[in-house]
Structure formats: C-alpha cells, structure tokens
Amino acid sequence: MTEVRKPVEDLLTDYDIFEPEFVKDPYPSFSEIRESKCPIARTERYEGSWLPTRYEDVVAIAQEYETFTSRGILVVPPFPGQGEGAYGGVTAPPITSDPPDHHWHRRLILPVFSPQSVAKFEQGTRDLCNKLIDEVIDKGTADAAADYAQHIPVRVIATLLGVPLEMESDFTAWVRAALENILDAEGRKWARKNIIEFFLAQVAERKQNPREDDFITELMNTEVEGKVVPIEYVLGVCNLMLVAGVDTTWSAIGSCMWHMAQHPEHRKQLRDNPELWPTAIEELLRMYAPVTMARIVDHDVEFQGCPMKAGDRVLMAFPAANRDPRQFENPDEVILDREHNRHVAFGSGIHRCAGSNLARLEVRVALQTWLERIPEFELVDKTDVTWAGGQVHGPRKCLVKF
Amino acid sequence: MCAIAAPEVFGSDEMGNAIVLIDGDIPAELQAKTRRAESNCPERAIVITD
Questions:
Q1: Phi and psi torsions of A394, nearest 5°
Q2: In CA terms, which of A198, A205, A266, B44 is 20 to 30 Å from B37?
Q3: In this structure, is residue A4 part of a structural domain?
Q4: What is the pLDDT of residue A261?
Q5: Which among A107, A114, A348 has CB closest to B12?
C-alpha cells in the first residue's frame, strides 16, 4: 500500500502519529507540544484525536473513567464492520470495559498476574533467553529485536495460556497486524478473524477435554453471580492476553537492548551494582514506555480549555507523560538509580496494566541474561534501526555486534 | 512499585493488590525505604503519617 502523506503543517493542530520521523522518535514532538501554549494537541487525521502530553493531564484523564471511557482503546477507529457478525461482541476485557462490568472483568484475571504467580515464569523465561542467545552467540552479531526480544513475550504468554508454542510465528503475525500495521484495515480484520477462530478452537477442545491447572479451562468454568461467564468474555480475555502481552513487552525489551548497546556505562553500573536492577527496570520503563492507549469522550466536556465532544478520541500518550520535566528531573536522561519515579508506563487508574509484574519480570530477565553472557556489545549502525510506532513504540530491527 | 522499593513493608495479596505487611510504626531502619515507596507510587496511594 503506497500512500502519499500530507506533510504536517503544525504539530499543535495537525500531528501525525504515523509520520515516519514521529514513529522513529516521537519525543521531540511530544516535547514541542508539551512546552507550547497548547499542551493538548489536536489533529483531524485518522478521524481526529486529542493528544495530551503533560503528566498531570494524562493521569487526570486516566483517572476520570466516567468522562474518558474505554469504548475505544486503539489510537485509530475500529475497522468497518469490526463489531458485527457472530463474534462481533468479542472485545478485550478488562481493558475495553467500563464500570460496572470492568470490576469483575478485571478481578478474574488479576490472580494470574500477582507477583507470586508470575514468579514461576522466571526460570522458564531465563531458559528461553539462554536458548535464544545460544543461537547467536558464536556469530558475533544478532538482531536484538528480531532474533531476541521478539521471541520472549510471545512464548511466555503462549505458556501462560496453554496454547502451542510452535504457533509462535502465527501469533506474532496476528499481533503485528492488529497493533502495528494498524492503518491496514484488511490486515486488522484478518488478525481478528484468526485470533477469534484460534481461541474458539482452543475452547472447543477444552470442552471435550478439560485440562488441569489450565488458564483457559479455569476461565471457561468461572461463574459470576451464579452464571458461567459468556464465551465472548473468554475469547476477549484470550485476545487481550495475546495482543497486549506480546507486542508491548517485546517493544520494551527491544528498546532496553537498543539503549544498553549504546551505553557501556550503564552496563557497567549494573554489573557493579546488581542491587540497582529493580530501580533500573522502572527507569528504563519510564524512558521507553512502549504503549499509547486511547479513550473515548463520553459527553461534551471542556478539559484544560479544550472543547472535547462526545465520541472524540483522546490518546493517552504515556511515553509523553513519562518525559514531562514538571514531573521528572532531567526527563530525557536514563538515571538507573532515580529516586522519584512515579512513571506511567503501565498507565494509571482502573485500567493500569494488569500484567505489569509479568512484563517487569520478562524485561529484567531478558536484560540480565543477555548482559551476563554478552556483557559488551554495540549497535552495528546507529542509522540502520527501524521502529514501530503509533500504538506501540519499539525497535523492529536493531543489529548489534559483539 | 512499593513492594519493589520496600519489600519488608509492602507485599501483595493473591489478587496482586498492594498490602501493608507491618502493623503500626515503621521501624527506623525501614523509614527511608518506605519514603521511597511513597514517592514512587504511581497511584499516590501511600500516605505516611508521622
């Protein structure tokens, strides 16, 4: 698909989140908007949206879930016909849910992601990382994004869901079509169809042969107020776990690898001070927050002087909020032992990422394992790194040598 | 976040919700860590009363 892109005239009234420079590095644009007279920008592109860039505004919008609803959470509108057909009602609960249903939609999945529950994935993730490193270590070069980061979350999530790991490349293709090539409506349609059909088959198989200690089986059998949960909910949760659990964490790992390849002083700092790992991970997540979510305005409202109309889309630019100098000193600098870090890489409020503990674990283990085995490495060519952007920001090609 | 900053003071229940593990006053040796947890909570959910 070739598309002639109209040049951006004015960031404040015509930003374009899919403009190639913005995709690669959105931070200068975020900063320009944030420090302007109009820190909530507006565009008419992609059927229009608002873009708050200050920490305070992003958090306020995230907290006000009655005004800023989760009827639409993608940065672009649904593709034509998305909500129609036999399983048109399948969304991605709880991220697409509003109260009151949001409460039980979220409550049912939280136990899977508690720190205690995710800890059991640590060894498996480490083994997987080691296996991926085995494949590249003798070559002296690797694609830190495509050979390494890309394979980690998808296999962890497939393990969690109890679905075949051999289908990794299918899962990855679906997720990329659903979240990355988001302007291609046909691709999104294809991804949605595949995901729903796949999980329908998984559910059907478990109806025949229920499994012990299996996430999908347990979800299918869960009762809420005396009634077993609807199939749309089961499919929706599986859809969310796959789509939200893969591209996002993979992007975070990739960005961290890209950073570490360029910062020998940070590699050394972590080697010399392993107790810094927990704060270092939070700092890297602040700096390279991969996800931008959207909200849909419920009713006409004036927010910080902006006349928002019912149905308007608001982009929750968590990456922009995380670089706001009003909230973070030296926001564009990675300070591995940063003292005050209320970052919103995982969002804020009732939709705060349910899988954050798993994501943290994956990012930490991926970095630790790589740095233990390949302590010294650098980018092959700084100018030859490609990025995905829009909904999820992270490197897709990132060649390193060692 | 709080359980990362001050694991002796904060933990989580089976839902992953943060809970306070200590009854009453925070021991002197844990006060710095607890303040750090307070200043890193993204939900501003921690309030330390002197």
A1: 180, 165
A2: A266
A3: no
A4: 98
A5: A114
Contacts of A343 in chain B (CB under 8 A): 42
CATH code (residue A20): 1.10.630.10
CATH number of B2-40: 3.30.70.20
Is residue A345 over pLDDT 60?
yes
In this structure, what token pair is assigned to residue A158?
A: 């497939």
Contact A107 B15 (CB under 8 A): yes
- CB of A63 less than 8 A from some CB of B: no
Radius of gyration of chain B (CA): 10
Q: Is B29 on the interface with A (CB under 8 A)?
A: no
- Residue A3: pLDDT over 80: no
Q: What whole-number distance in Å separates Cα of residue A367 and Cα of residue A256? A: 8
Number of domains within chain A: 1
Cβ contacts of A348 on chain B, cutoff 8 Å: 42-43
Domain of A255 in residue numbering reads as 11-401
Residue of B nearest to A282 (CA): B1
pLDDT tens sequence across A249-275: 999 999 999 999 999 999 999 999 999
Task: Single out the residue of A44, A15, A121, A89 nearest to residue A312, CA to CA.
Answer: A44
Q: How far is Cα A16 from Cα B33, in angstroms, rounded to an integer?
A: 42
In a domain, A210, yes or no: yes
Q: What is the pLDDT of residue A370?
A: 98
Of B14, B39, B41, the CB nearest to A114: B14
Structure confidence by residue, pLDDT tens digits, A48-71: 999 999 999 999 999 999 999 999
Q: pLDDT at residue A173 above 80?
A: yes
Contacts of B41 in chain A (CB under 8 A): 342
Mutation site, B4, B13, B33, interface A, largest A CB count within 10 A: B4
Task: Return the sign of the alpha-carbon dihedral for residues A295, A297, A302, A308.
Answer: positive
Exposure class string for A365-391: b at 16+ Cβ within 10 A, else e: bbbbbbbeebeebebeeeeebebbbbb
Q: Which residues of A touch B14 (CB under 8 A)?
A: 111, 114, 116
The predicted model gives A159-163 an average pLDDT of 97
Between A113, A282, A346, which is nearest B16 by CB? A113
CB contact under 8 A, B41 and A111: no
A245 in a structural domain: yes
d(CA A391, CA A57): 19
**Chain B touched by A116 (CB under 8 Å):** yes
